[in-house]
Automatic annotation (TrEMBL):
Transmembrane segments: none annotated. The keyword ATP-binding does not apply. Component of the lipopolysaccharide transport and assembly complex. Interacts with LptA and the LptBFG transporter complex. Keywords: Cell inner membrane, Cell membrane, Membrane, Transmembrane, Transmembrane helix. GO terms for cellular component: outer membrane-bounded periplasmic space; plasma membrane. It comes from the Bacteria. It comes from Photobacterium marinum. This is Lipopolysaccharide export system protein LptC. InterPro entries: LipoPS_assembly_LptC-rel (IPR010664), LPS_export_LptC (IPR052363), LptC (IPR026265).
Length: 187
């Protein structure tokens, strides 16, 4: 075998191997990657969401700096949420704010971090309720917390551990270690 034949054979082998290698990459099936179920389905900034009752009256509105909605769990996470609850669909009665909140698919809102509940009606006895966490059912408006609670009104201050109540009925009950300070009206 001559030197020239050896070089030609070697070039044919190199070309055949290169072609096989390149076609192998081309014919290879694409690997399908399943989307990560833990990543949010959608996100948003400066969100305003208004919810209406079955009769068409405004029930509540949630404003948030940022939100993430997860499709698998149905949860929605809020950053710096403010919940506005309406009386008879027109008058804003309550303003509830916190650092973070999670709304689950059963319409239960779990708020945490610096929770502040303001009654915006001028004739209300309760002005501000402060606590660290609050669980609020947005359908029947029941709420509760196991944390320390401070309730402030025009002529009183109460504190206790744990609270339950209902936003629609304007009822809040402190559960344990209740202390209060009351002042008489002055005309």
């Amino acid at each position: 075998m001559s030197f020239r034949s050896l070089i030609c054979a070697l070039l044919i082998i190199i070309c055949a191997w290169t072609g096989y290698y390149l076609l192998g990459k081309y014919w290879q099936d694409d690997i399908q990657v399943e989307p990560d179920a833990e990543k949010p389905l959608f996100t948003g900034s400066d969100i305003v969401n208004t919810s209406y009752s079955e009769s068409g009256l405004r029930s509540y509105q949630i404003d948030s700096d940022y939100l993430e909605h997860f499709s698998k769990s149905g949860d929605t996470d809020f950053t710096q949420p403010v919940l506005w609850i309406y009386r008879n669909g027109s008058e804003t009665e309550w303003r509830i704010s916190s650092n973070t909140a999670r709304l689950d698919k059963t319409q239960v809102l779990q708020m945490s971090g610096n929770v502040r509940i303001y009654n915006l009606l001028p004739e209300s006895a309760i002005k501000v309720i402060q606590t660290n966490s609050l669980r609020l059912d947005l359908i029947n408006k029941d709420f509760d917390t196991p944390d320390q609670v401070f309730i402030t009104g025009n002529t009183f201050q109460n504190e206790g551990t744990g609270m339950k109540g209902n936003i629609d009925r304007s009822v809040a009950t402190l559960l344990k270690n209740v202390k209060g300070r009351y002042e008489a009206f002055q005309n």
